[in-house]
Amino acid sequence: MAALSAWFWNERFWLPHNVTWADLADPAPGVEYPKAGHLLSALPLALGIFAVRIVFERYVAGPCASALQIQAEVGRRAQPSAVLEKVFTSITKCPDARQLDGLSKQLDWEVRKVQRWFRHRRNQDKPSTRTKFCESMWRFTFYLCVFTYGLAFLWQSPWMWDTRQCWYNYPYQVLSPGLYCYYVTELAFYWSLMFSQFIDIKRKDFLIMFIHHLATIGLISFSYVNNMVRVGSLVLCVHDASDFLLEAAKLANYAKYQRLCDFLFVVFGMIFFTTRLIIYPYWVLNTTLFESWEIIGPYPSWWLFNILLLVLQLLHIIWSYLIARIAFKALIRGKKSLMSSLLLPDGQKILSFQPSLYWPKVVLLSSLLLF
């Protein structure tokens, strides 16, 4: 175990040349540097965030849904059948013609009745519009609050206005309480999403979203441990800028305010393109690739961090193309609701839609590398 720990925390990988963990272990009084142990505080905070979500959805989002006359649909439930339930949970949710024929003979049911049972059973697992509304309202509230906090904090931070400040005196950069709170709160939120996935109704993209949350946790933790939190805070803020607008558009969609929904989606698209295709490459990548090279020089974890950020930029381009392409098709075909054509029935984020048409590997890779 000691050998594995020594290999994992190899100074030559994590730190610039001529810097050791010992140099960072004993800072001056009142000075704090990021340490891996700090990340453990995100776990109890994640449980707290999850508890707040439950209370919020029940006592805030639920009454809002009722006020907007969004009720939980009561769909037809499949009649109890141990044989079909076993097939549904263990083998397939969409049996083919041969399987349907075999089940029909085994149960002495008509094939149509078996098909109908599977359709009703699949519908049972779909979250209602009310459930989706409450979840989106929680996400909207959190994204808006964390973006507002992050922007207010960065507004007073020197590295927002001069990105070279991200690298001066690196890695001996003091961890301020505000930056610590911002980072740990973001990390705790994604941990809470990990917890809630196993309690919420399972959706089609369960595995992809699980890997996405896991990868996001890894990326945030990685940038924290090697004290790239200054530039990491810029990355977080850039990506938070459009998330709450998407959730707001989804809320309007569930409430059937289509004009407001489409307006919010247009604003979301403008912010998304601006932050991901202009601000991110010319502001973030410029400092991580060129300014850092000039000030501190490259080292192994620097290369890994920049490779991940470059791949993320490639994914931004792909996502932007897909958004623009489908939005254009929706407008050409005269869709009543632009947003409805860009969302899955279960209300998942755009770009998880129709993965069979848009390169499953790209969608999976995007979920792995999304910050």
Automatic annotation (TrEMBL):
Q: How does it sit in the membrane?
A: Multi-pass membrane protein
Q: Which residues bind DNA?
A: 86-129
Q: Which Pfam families match?
A: Homeodomain, TRAM_LAG1_CLN8
Q: Which reaction does it catalyse?
A: sphinganine + octadecanoyl-CoA = N-(octadecanoyl)-sphinganine + CoA + H(+)
Q: Where is it predominantly found?
A: endoplasmic reticulum
Q: Which residues cross the membrane?
A: 36-56, 136-155, 175-194, 263-283, 303-328
* One example GO MF annotation: DNA binding
Question: Where is the protein found, in the record's own terms?
Answer: Endoplasmic reticulum membrane; Nucleus
**Ranges for the TLC domain?**
131-332
What InterPro entries would the database entry show?
HD (IPR001356), Homeodomain-like_sf (IPR009057), Lag1/Lac1-like (IPR016439), TLC-dom (IPR006634)
**Pathway(s) where this gene product acts:** Lipid metabolism; sphingolipid metabolism; Sphingolipid metabolism
This one is known as: Ceramide synthase 5
Record the organism. Denticeps clupeoides
